[in-house]
Design goal:
Number of helices: 1
Largest sheet: 5 strands, antiparallel
Mean pLDDT: 82
Strand content: over 45%
Order of helices and strands: EHEEEEEEEEE
Low-confidence stretches: none
Number of strands: 10
Distance between the termini: 27 Å
Strand order of the largest sheet: 3-4-5-8-9
Length: 136
């Protein structure tokens, strides 16, 4: 069974990535600040112009294995359909996380329940090749 994902939007911390997400992949890409800290647990807070979008806290992590993947994906932008071929290599792991989303965040629809399984990809190396364009 193939793995499928749908992205309704992406938060990034790099202006080039934001521009590429909008112009190449047609994603509603927005800028955000990611702050990482580690006291008792590893924690990431995502903010947009000082507004907290969400907090993700890792309770435990189980490293698995090094994995290479082929990453074909599709995207639509205006009247074009794009096929992106790509490759990724990373060290996969399973983590237990807690997600907290404030009521005023645009991500409130994510806070209905806690993730029951989260896969992490450490040391991710991703290559996306030039897209093939199909006109609709």
């Amino acid at each position: 069974m193939p793995l499928q994902t749908t992205l309704s939007g992406v938060y990034v911390d790099n202006t080039d990535a934001a521009a590429a997400g909008r112009s190449i992949w047609g994603l509603p890409t927005q800028m955000a600040d990611f702050s990482w800290s580690k006291t008792k647990h590893l924690c990431c807070r995502v903010r947009q112009q000082q507004r907290l979008l969400c907090t993700l806290e890792v309770d435990w992590q189980l490293p698995l294995w090094q994995q290479s993947l082929a990453l074909p994906s599709f995207s639509a932008n205006r009247s074009n359909l794009f096929l992106f071929e790509g490759e990724a290599e990373c060290r996969l792991g399973v983590v237990s996380v807690r997600l907290a989303v404030p009521a005023q965040s645009p991500l409130t629809n994510l806070s209905n329940s806690q993730p029951w399984l989260t896969i992490c990809a450490q040391s991710l190396h991703l290559v996306a090749y030039e897209p093939k364009i199909f006109f609709l």
